[in-house]
Design goal:
Layout (H helix, E strand, L loop, with lengths): L3 E3 L10 E6 L2 H4 L3 H11 L4 E2 L13 H8 L1 E8 L7 H17 L2 E6 L4 H6 L2 H16 L3 H22 L11 H11 L4 H6 L8 E6 L6 H12 L5 E5 L2 H7 L3 H14 L9 H12 L4 E8 L2 H8 L9 E6 L18 E6 L5 H12 L10 H11 L3 H10 L5 H13 L3 H12 L4 H14 L4 H10 L4 H10 L4 E2 L5 E2 L2 H12 L11 E2 L2 H9 L9 E5 L14 E2 L11 E5 L3 E2 L11 E3 L7 E2 L10 E3 L7 E3 L30 E3 L8 E3 L9 E3 L8 E2 L11 E3 L20 E3 L30 E3 L22 E3 L20 E3 L8 E3 L7 E4 L14 E3 L8 E4 L10 E3 L3 E4 L5 H6 L6 H4 L2 E6 L5 E5 L1 E5 L2 E7 L9 E3 L3 E5 L7 E11 L7 E2 L2 E5 L3 E5 L4 E5 L3 E7 L2 E9 L10 E6 L7 E10 L1
Parallel strand pairs: 1-34, 2-3, 2-4, 4-5, 6-9, 6-10, 7-8, 8-9, 13-14, 14-16, 15-17, 16-18, 18-20, 19-21, 20-22, 21-23, 22-24, 23-25, 24-26, 26-27, 27-28, 28-29, 29-30, 30-32, 31-33, 32-34, 33-35
Antiparallel strand pairs: 11-12, 36-39, 37-38, 37-48, 39-40, 40-49, 41-51, 42-50, 43-49, 43-51, 44-45, 45-48, 46-47, 46-50
Helix pairs in contact: 2-8, 3-4, 4-7, 6-7, 11-12, 12-13, 13-14, 15-16, 15-17, 16-18, 19-23, 20-22, 20-23
């Protein structure tokens, strides 16, 4: 039921900034505001400060408007010349609107200006407003003059209202003390909102997650300081993990603190954890408490400190930890309690904020010191947004010259800072098994940036428990998975993992388990010191400076002869000579990028090898057959023996020959029957792929993108169960290629029916290139036709019964997209050329009424408003014209009172302001109507006065078909958005949460803004649900997204059954 029909770049609900700073640059930019901003950044408060000094025009810049809306709080520095700035005044209007509608926190700062001066518009504020009136009087255009008059009236009323808000004045206080007071007074984060949401749940838990040193404890302390007084009892138990390790009865000490804080009872004579737990359970059941448990690393700690019984309604628990799964495994999560739990994942600082934090400690200012730009960038890049690292290194570099900075940077490349490293090491030490620790070291040394599936294949072959191990690393904030399923690790975490390996033998690299430092490894191989302790090596000759090689850069195969346990070997752009008789036999991953020879026919015992990467090599053919080797030039044959009973690469699952520009054929797939993935990207000379590929029964992924000379795709491919096939840039539309003959009826014949993803981008395919039917591809879910000169969506696309994603990016000739399959969930069409002045040609988009919820990723702002038509997605008609049988089926009765009401609506992106009678809107199974007034239909029984309402699906012999939801919104007259006697409303997001199944739907109405008569607006909608989408006994939470209840008159809900 999720409806999102907007630009792909639209941000989700939530805040981007903690604070928006509004100020007059000429007055305070270089003094008070600068110091205030520095203090906010130092407190880890994400603050928006506009650096632009030149103001143009009457309207507010879009980026400023967006920043205000995306901020949790606003600080307005009302200085002497504030009123002379139209930008400042427009900011003020919008800030007041956010305060009125969403209860945005607002702190006016009367900086050397009395509140009465602002309220009465006297003194310098009168001078500023007189300047605007003069501009109005001098304006010859009557329409612009009218706009000026309206603006001035709005500004004056806004200033009067702002002066009545509780503000702050410096008076005779020190500026530093005044700034600290401002910073402390701001309700900074979503955590504060969570603490004040009025929930009556029996256990409301927030887990703050993040790697060591990211700021979890600092954030929890700040929130505790702000809100602990709002509860009957509160307790902050700090450093629980360390206290439990460093002291024999550490856990008892923590329990004792908790008991004394929340029950005021001391049990000095008790030395039993269970007795303390019972005491805590009894105390929290009778009092509304706020408990912070800092740095928890085991379930036993949580069970001892929280117990397993219900808390008093309204109680809040904050847990800081490095383990994402920890909280939900504790005893409190039992069917009797069913706590409400959310997670807050702390992220690294942005580059700009990182630089400011570094400067605060290194230069005692947020500004860079001249000449330190390059070295500061190096430190910021090294820290990668880690607050503790920036603080520690900044302090160590304070008052040092540039030469010292450079020396420090060079030292960090060799060995990490011990203090920072020890903090990060706590996460590594908390890993539950040796398997997880070895897995972490492997990933830190060799797998960052690799795909998760690939990593699991290789490390599983290394006899490691990869699936559970990677999950444990993710849970402990040591690893995360990028959007493209690649393994990603914070650079400091990776450096910590490598330092663990380095400490195995600090001075003798050959005694370590893994080597990745190119200089160290080259010396070890040159001196033939490698032994059986080595598990992995990675050498890239391009990373070595030639002057440091001291002689020949060639290596001998004999250097590897004693590495009996070597499983991972990277030899990129390495010239290696000698026989391979004693080459390591336990290899699982061999990477030889830039392989210099023309053919691969290595007589190696590689029966355990699962991944072979020879991309960017000079090979001209790839034939694993022992009986028919490709002829080689003298001196190019790699000698050895090959048993006819053993397949050379019998366990191989991944073969990557991408960017082998001279490769013309690949054959003898019978030698690699276990192959799962074949990557031949940009093999621009490749002509043929052998029919023997049908021996690869496990093959699921083939990438042949930009193989421009490929003439034959084997017909035997249809015998396989390939799921992903990439044929981008193969120029299929230019010539008669067997995979896609010019006879369009044969297009799909040579494509495996098992395909789930097919990409045919940039192939010069016209509509005539496609067959009439694609139904043989019954399993296809993702289809990419981007960059092709099609004028409409090909008809064959409609025959795909399971299609979910259709990509049509940069189809510059595309005019229409009509009736895609009803299963489609995402339609992507963007034309980059429109950003350079070219026209969007698309004129019609049509969907069937049965269409599933869809994400439409388009540049809607570039669509031609006069000709665009979107059918099936949005249907609008006057509610008076809707058939009574339809209204009855929705459970809507007695709506005559709204038929005569008129509203003005602003349709998102596609239309401007339109006045009409009350309309019925249909959007993918959601019927809705909007009207002025606060009268809810009498037949909706379940009501709430707040912004949310909980509803349990009743047991009934009738089938539940939907729910009616009604929301009444009110507002005080907001200066700047009143039009005549009408009031402009921005419709809320509707959030529906299935508490029982932990699912959430978000609905953003097609209509953006509505003008209605009076202060109240009513939004009535009917949600249709499928057969299994609502079940008896399930609890649903409906919420209209507004930050506080100040603009919510009430919610109501009613079920509809047949």
């Amino acid at each position: 039921m999720v409806i999102i029909a907007e630009e792909a770049s639209s941000s989700s609900i939530g805040y981007i900034y903690d604070v928006f700073l509004s100020f007059r640059g000429a007055d305070t930019r270089n003094n008070f505001t600068n110091h205030l901003h520095t203090a906010l950044v130092n407190a880890n408060v994400k603050t928006f400060l506009d650096d632009t000094e030149i103001e143009t025009g009457l309207s507010l810049k879009p980026e400023l408007e967006s920043a205000i809306r995306a901020s949790r709080a606003s600080i307005i520095v009302l200085s002497k010349n504030y009123a002379s700035s139209t930008w400042c005044l427009n900011e003020l209007v919008l800030i007041l609107e956010q305060h009125r509608k969403y209860n945005q926190i607002v702190i006016p700062i009367f900086y050397h200006v009395e509140p009465t001066v602002v309220r009465n518009i006297t003194g310098s504020f009168k001078v500023g407003m007189d300047k605007h009136r003069k501009k109005m009087d001098e304006e010859p255009n009557t329409e612009i003059k009218s706009v000026w008059a309206q603006k001035i009236d709005i500004w004056e009323k806004t200033l009067a209202q702002f002066s009545n808000l509780k503000g702050k004045e410096p008076k005779d206080r020190l500026e530093t003390e005044f700034i600290e007071d401002i910073v402390t007074d701001i309700d900074l984060s979503s955590i504060s909102s969570w603490l004040q949401d009025g929930s009556e749940h029996t256990a409301d838990i927030l887990t703050i997650l993040g790697m060591g040193g990211i700021g979890k404890t600092s954030l929890a302390k700040h929130v505790y300081k702000l809100h602990s007084h709002e509860f009957n009892r509160s307790s902050f138990a700090e450093n629980i993990s360390r206290r439990c390790v460093e002291k024999y009865n550490g856990l008892l000490d923590v329990q004792k603190q908790l008991c004394e804080d929340i029950s005021k009872v001391s049990l000095n004579s008790v030395h039993d954890v269970s007795v303390y737990t019972s005491t805590i359970e009894n105390a929290v059941s009778h009092k509304k408490v706020f408990i912070v448990l800092d740095d928890v690393d085991s379930v036993d700690q949580l069970d001892a400190l929280l117990g397993k019984k219900e808390f008093h309604p309204g109680s809040k628990i904050i847990i800081t930890t490095k383990d994402a799964s920890l909280t939900e495994r504790c005893a409190l999560f039992n069917p009797q309690v069913q706590p409400k739990h959310i997670k807050h994942d702390l992220k690294s600082l942005y580059v700009a904020d990182s630089l400011k934090l570094l400067c605060l400690h290194a230069f005692k200012s947020k500004d860079l010191k001249e000449g330190y730009e390059a070295v500061s960038d190096d430190i910021v890049n090294y820290c990668e947004g880690h607050p503790l690292a920036l603080t520690v290194l900044g302090r160590s570099l304070h008052d040092r010259d540039i030469a010292y900075w450079k020396d420090c940077i060079e030292g960090l490349k060799k060995e990490p800072d011990s203090y920072i490293n020890n903090v990060l090491m706590m996460g590594f030490k908390s890993l539950p098994s040796k398997n997880d620790k070895e897995l972490f070291k492997h990933i830190a040394c060799f797998f960052v940036g690799e795909g998760r599936d690939f990593t699991e294949i290789v490390l599983k072959a290394c006899n490691m428990n990869t699936r559970s191990g990677i999950t444990h690393l993710i849970d402990r904030c040591l690893l995360h998975i990028d959007w493209n399923n690649a393994l990603s690790m914070h650079s400091l975490i990776q450096e910590m993992g490598r330092d663990v390996v380095r400490q195995e033998s600090p001075d003798k690299p050959w005694k370590r388990s893994r080597l990745w430092c190119h200089e160290d490894l080259f010396k070890v191989l040159k001196q033939k010191k490698g032994k059986g302790n080595l598990l992995g090596l990675s050498l890239d000759m391009r990373m070595l400076e030639k002057e440091k090689l001291r002689g020949s850069s060639e290596l001998k195969t004999a250097a590897f002869s004693n590495m009996d346990n070597l499983m991972i070997l990277h030899l990129d752009y390495v010239q290696i000579n000698g026989p391979y008789e004693n080459f390591p036999e336990e290899l699982r991953w061999l990477r030889m990028r830039g392989f210099p020879l023309k053919s691969f026919h290595l007589d190696l015992r590689m029966k355990h090898l699962v991944a072979l990467d020879m991309s960017y090599s000079n090979i001209e053919s790839f034939d694993m057959s022992c009986s028919n080797p490709q002829p080689l030039e003298v001196g190019e044959m790699l000698t050895g023996s090959c048993s006819k009973d053993d397949r050379l690469l019998g366990s191989l699952k991944i073969l990557d020959l991408s960017y082998c520009y001279k490769l013309n054929c690949i054959a003898s797939f019978c030698e690699i029957p276990m192959l799962k993935g074949l990557f031949l990207r940009n093999c621009t000379s490749l002509i043929e792929v052998s029919d023997s590929i049908d021996h690869c029964d496990e093959l699921v992924f083939i990438d042949l993108s930009n193989c421009k000379e490929l003439r034959i795709l084997p017909r035997t491919l249809t015998k396989l169960k390939v799921k992903n096939l990439v044929l981008d840039g193969c120029n299929i539309g230019e010539r008669a290629m067997e995979v896609v003959p010019r006879d369009s009826k044969s297009l799909a014949i040579y494509l495996p029916s098992s395909l789930v993803t097919l990409s045919l981008a940039n192939n010069k395919l016209s509509n005539e290139s496609f067959p009439l039917d694609f139904s043989c591809l019954s399993m296809l879910k993702n289809l990419c036709l981007s960059g092709n000169p099609i004028v409409s969506m090909p008809n064959c696309v409609r025959s795909l019964p399971r299609l979910q994603t259709l990509s049509l990016f940069d189809c510059e000739k595309l005019v229409s997209i009509e009736h895609p399959p009803c299963t489609l969930k995402e339609l992507m069409h963007k034309n980059l050329s429109v950003h350079f002045g070219n026209k969007y040609l698309i004129q019609k988009i049509a969907f069937d009424p049965e269409m599933s919820p869809l994400r439409l990723c388009m540049d809607l702002e570039y669509l031609p408003t006069s000709s665009i038509e979107i059918e099936g997605m949005i249907k609008i008609q006057p509610i008076a014209d809707v058939d009574d049988t339809i209204l009855c089926s929705l459970g809507w009765r007695n709506l005559e009172f709204i038929n005569k009401r008129r509203v003005e609506t602003y349709h998102c992106h596609l239309r401007g302001l339109e006045e009409s009678q009350t309309q019925m809107y249909y959007e993918f199974g959601i019927f809705s109507t909007i009207y002025g007034g606060e009268v809810m239909p009498t037949w909706i029984r379940h009501r709430s006065k707040g912004a949310s309402i909980s509803f349990t699906i009743p047991s009934s012999p009738k089938r539940l078909t939907g729910l009616n939801f009604c929301y009444v919104q009110f507002t005080h007259l907001i200066i700047g958005i009143q039009v005549g006697n009408n009031q402009l409303f921005r419709l809320p997001y509707i959030i529906i949460s299935n508490i029982t199944k932990n699912l959430t739907w978000i609905y953003k109405p097609y209509i953006n803004n509505v003008n209605v008569d009076g202060k109240f607006l009513t939004f009535l909608s009917h949600w249709m649900f499928g057969k299994n989408e609502m079940e008896d006994g399930e609890e649903r939470l409906f919420k209209a997204f507004s930050q506080k209840n100040s603009n919510t008159r009430g919610l109501s809900i009613e079920d509809v059954s047949k």
